[in-house]
Amino acid sequence: MSPAGRRIGLVLGSGSARGWAHIGVIRGLADMGVVPDLVCGCSIGALVGAAYAEGGLDGFEDWVRSLGWQDVLGLVDVSLGGGLIKGDKLMAFFEQHFVDRNFDALPLPFACVATDLANGREVWLREGSVAAAVRASIALPGLFAPVRRDGRLLVDGGLVNPVPVSLARALGADVVVAVDLGSDIVGSALPKAAQSDAPGWGRRLLDSLGFGGGDELPPLPSVLTTSIHIMQTRIARSRLAGEPADVLLAPRLAQLGLMDYHRAAEAIAEGRAVVERMRPAIEYALSQ
User: Fold this and answer.
1) What is the mean pLDDT of the chain?
2) Residue of 156, 180, 184, 246 marked active site
3) Which of the given ranges, 42-46, 85-89, 184-188, has the highest pLDDT on average?
4) In the chain, pLDDT over 90 holds for what percent of residues?
5) Which residue of 56, 77, 211, 216 sits 20 to 30 Å from the alpha carbon of 4, by its own alpha carbon?
6) What is the pLDDT of residues 171-227, one digit of tens each?
7) Which is catalytic among the residues 2, 14, 16, 43?
8) Would residue 156 show up in a list of annotated catalytic residues for this protein?
9) Is the pLDDT higher at 78 or at 88?
10) Would you give the distance in Å from CA 92 to the centre of its chain?
11) Is 196 tagged catalytic?
């Protein structure tokens, strides 16, 4: 749809389980005939973006749609050093089924964002192992253990650039379509996330470890991730004000808790829906 010579960049933002909406966005754009020339991601956006760039989105979608809370718990490898979850099981599954190559071998150009824990600097990951880079980008502090890479200790890129439009521009995108998963979090996220996760895997995980605190308060994973995502939403708004996308897609996902990885069907459906709602804006941006 874009005029010849103009590169389309797709930017997939951070947002934990709400990131399954990225799959629906990609599907919706494809239905419009929009095929990105490059993709950039942060945190869960890096995970989905890597599967897409590698050509494994079909299998990836089948997997996430099949997830129940028991399956999510099965991918959890508990650690009390650096984070509640080491993340090795998740990434081993990812490497085995979808991505086992370096960045320069991907069919579609891809890059993702992490944060240097020592100095707070934004780190753009564009070389070496894709799986290792994604593992660093999703290392949500307190939940996933940090990752050592090239002498640095890296954590979730959402701490500095939750919707990395700037990275897509740097890679040569002329038209940027970005997905912001946090637009409806602040002001409503904690109650809804807590209500959603209360019977979910966050509480089951803590109960299984003997750390359950009853039903008076939200479980620790919900409090931790929601607090971080409120911060990331504020950061995203500031970054997007100075580095705007040509089209900003904001799925309506407040009903989903940030740990609701077993509710992929709802998130994917909303990803498709937001593309349809924004179809005129997308068509206008690509026609310029």
Assistant:
1) 83
2) 156
3) 42-46
4) 54
5) 56
6) 999 999 999 998 776 555 444 444 444 445 555 555 544 445 555 666 666 677 677
7) 43
8) yes
9) 88
10) 18
11) no
User: Which runs of E-coded beta strand occur in the chain?
Assistant: 8-12, 38-42, 83-85, 110-116, 122-125, 142-144, 147-149, 152-156, 175-179, 247-249
Task: Give the distance from CA 181 to its chain's centroid.
Answer: 8
Question: Any idea of the CA torsion for 81, 41, 202, 24, to the nearest 10 degrees?
Answer: -160
The pLDDT of residue 113 is above 60: yes
Q: Distance between CA atoms of 39 and 110, rounded to whole angstroms?
A: 5
- The span from the CA of 253 to the CA of 192, in Å, is 10
Q: Which amino acid is at 263?
A: R
| pTM for this predicted structure | 0.85
148 φ/ψ angles, rounded to the nearest 5 degrees? -90, 125
The residue whose two tokens read 């010849």 is 4
Neighbours of 278 (CB within 10 A): 18
Placement of tokens 């005129």 in the chain: 280
Q: Are strands 122-125 and 110-116 parallel, antiparallel or unpaired?
A: antiparallel
Question: How far is Cα of residue 157 from the mean position of the Cα atoms in its chain?
Answer: 10
Q: Determine whether 94 is exposed, middle or buried from the number of CB atoms within 10 Å of its CB (0-12, 13-18, 19+).
A: buried
Q: What is the 3-state secondary structure (H, E, C) of 108-169?
A: CCEEEEEEECCCCCEEEECCCEHHHHHHHHCCCCEEECCEEECCEEEEEHHHCCCCCHHHHH
Is residue 96 within a helix (H) or strand (E), and if so which, with residue range?
helix 88-97
132-162 pLDDT, tens per residue? Answer: 899 899 888 767 778 898 899 999 999 999 9
